[in-house]
Write a structure and sequence with these properties.
By secondary structure, this protein is of the alpha+beta class. It is 42% helix and 20% strand. The strands form three sheets. Strands 1-5-6-11-10-9-7-8 form an eight-stranded mixed beta sheet. Strands 13-12-14-15-16 form a five-stranded mixed beta sheet, sandwiched between helices. It has a three-stranded antiparallel beta sheet with strand order 2-4-3. The structure holds histidyl-adenosine monophosphate.
Length: 441
């Protein structure tokens, strides 16, 4: 049997309803904040990612799916979306009509990492990018949006970690100081760090090797070397977040795995998937657009790891559902997001018993489907008892018992599965009667 490639997986219907509910909640929220959707290709020229993400990052050095196509062009399956959105902004000259553009995109990314829980080789991101705004208010607003999204999804324990990486004015002095510390500690550093020291010393602060972590625990931080502009910018971000009651921690070790960042960077971390991992990450990339031959304008954005988010939300939903089985329903089950989740259950199950009933059940259920009422029926001729069981299993809110006898008596029985209340429906216009009844109760 042919199976999926390692690190690649199917998202099955049992999960897609949750993914769709998350995507809908996110896109509605983004649209309230003025974002518009953009769809970008899954493949780009390799050069785009190499130049933007950085030649010495893990992503570009060892994780990209790169190949030559039949004509020999070097192509890469996108490992992230920011580079492509920036390319699109430049290519379509979006800034000429209005330099301020707020764009979001949802889709798969590809990185050849070691697969584990919450880490896949094809994974999905919800990305948001803002162009043309220099103000620190927008940095705070993006973190606020993430915070609000997680709140709407019922996740309260997530916390933003924020840092500032400085800009081209202040980073060189910091790098010089870091380099001298790295030289002093050279014998404790891994090969990777030694290799990266010259080209990109900041990356060494991101190294996960325990000996490097220990050797660099007192290494200088960008925060201690910010120029006045970057310091003011960061102070404003923090104070606005406080004003908006967004919980955050300043984390001087947060350097991110991509090279294009300057000033504010942030991640939302969780331990819900075992070891600590990020559900979202982002930051400012004010130099990137110009570096990719575009206009000299500002950029900032974030990406949420949808696979990780869906896993955390699924855990939370399951916990809530088990809680409600042994106590009264919790208020937060009434949230818009939870309502989106329950919308997947059928409203009605029509139980036909007898030859004549089959045809009518089919006609009525199709008419109800068209009218927007989720209706299921059955064509197998099974007994009332077994079909009641099936309606229960499907979590249908109502059943309509439509046996030949009920049809003859002109009295179909509509039963509310929760309250067990019964209503009688006549056979002349059952679709309209059911529509009226269901909209009333
Ligand atoms: P990133 O931190 O590389 O940033 O990825 C963002 C999120 O994608 C991570 O926090 C994580 O949740 C998820 N993610 C990354 N790799 C994997 C994987 N192998 N399996 C599952 N989930 C994963 C970026 O990609 C930047 N483009 C974010 C950004 C947008 N910065 C500015 N604008």
């Amino acid at each position: 049997m042919i199976q999926t490639i390692r690190g690649f997986r199917d998202i099955l219907p049992a999960d897609t309803f949750l993914w769709q509910a998350i995507e809908k909640t996110a896109s509605e929220l983004f649209e309230n904040f003025g974002f518009q959707e953009i769809r970008i290709p899954i493949m780009e020229k390799t050069e785009l990612f190499a130049r933007s993400i950085g030649e010495t990052t893990d992503i570009v050095e060892k994780e990209m799916y790169t190949f030559a196509d039949r004509k020999g062009d070097k192509l890469t399956l996108r490992p992230e979306a920011t580079a492509s959105v920036v390319r699109s902004y430049i290519q379509h000259n979006m800034g000429s009509s209005d330099p301020v553009q707020k764009l979001y995109t949802i889709g798969p990314m590809f990185r050849r990492e070691r697969p584990q829980k919450g880490r896949y080789r094809q994974f999905y991101q919800i990305n948001a990018e803002v162009f043309g705004i220099a103000s620190p208010y927008i940095d705070a607003q993006l973190i606020l949006i993430l915070n609000e999204l997680f709140k709407r999804l019922g996740l309260s324990e997530l916390k933003a970690h924020i840092n500032s990486l400085g800009c081209k004015e202040c980073r060189p002095t910091f790098q010089k100081e870091l380099l001298s510390v790295l030289n002093d500690k050279k014998e404790h550093l891994c090969e990777n760090c030694i290799r990266r020291m010259e080209k990109n010393p900041l990356r060494t602060l991101d190294c996960k090797v325990p000996t490097c972590r220990e050797a660099l625990k007192d290494a200088p931080s960008t925060l201690g070397h910010l120029c006045n502009g970057c310091r003011d910018h960061f102070e404003t971000v923090k104070s606005v977040l406080k004003d908006q009651n967004v919980d955050f921690t300043v984390d001087k070790t947060l350097v991110r795995g991509l090279d294009y960042y300057s000033k504010t960077t942030f991640e939302i971390l969780t331990t819900a998937l075992g070891a600590q991992s990020a559900v979202a990450g982002g930051g400012r990339y004010d130099a990137l657009i110009k570096e990719l031959d575009g206009p000299d304008t500002y950029g900032i954005g974030f990406a949420i790891g949808l696979d990780r988010l869906a896993e955390i939300v699924a855990q939370m939903v399951n916990e809530k559902l088990t809680q409600t089985q042994d106590s009264s329903p919790k208020d937060d089950l009434q949230s818009d997001f939870m309502k989106l989740l329950s919308a997947r259950f059928p409203d009605l199950f029509i139980i036909p018993i007898g030859e004549k009933a089959f045809r009518l059940a089919y006609l009525w259920s199709s008419a109800l489907n068209i009218a927007g009422i989720r209706t299921e029926t059955d064509y197998s001729g099974r007994s009332l008892k077994s079909l009641m069981k099936r309606a229960d299993k499907l979590n249908c809110a109502y059943v309509l018992i439509a046996g030949d006898q009920e049809i003859e008596d002109n009295a179909l029985v509509l039963r509310d599965m929760k309250t067990k209340e019964q209503y009688f429906i006549t056979t002349d216009n059952p679709v309209e009667q059911i529509q009226t009844l269901l909209s009333r109760v």
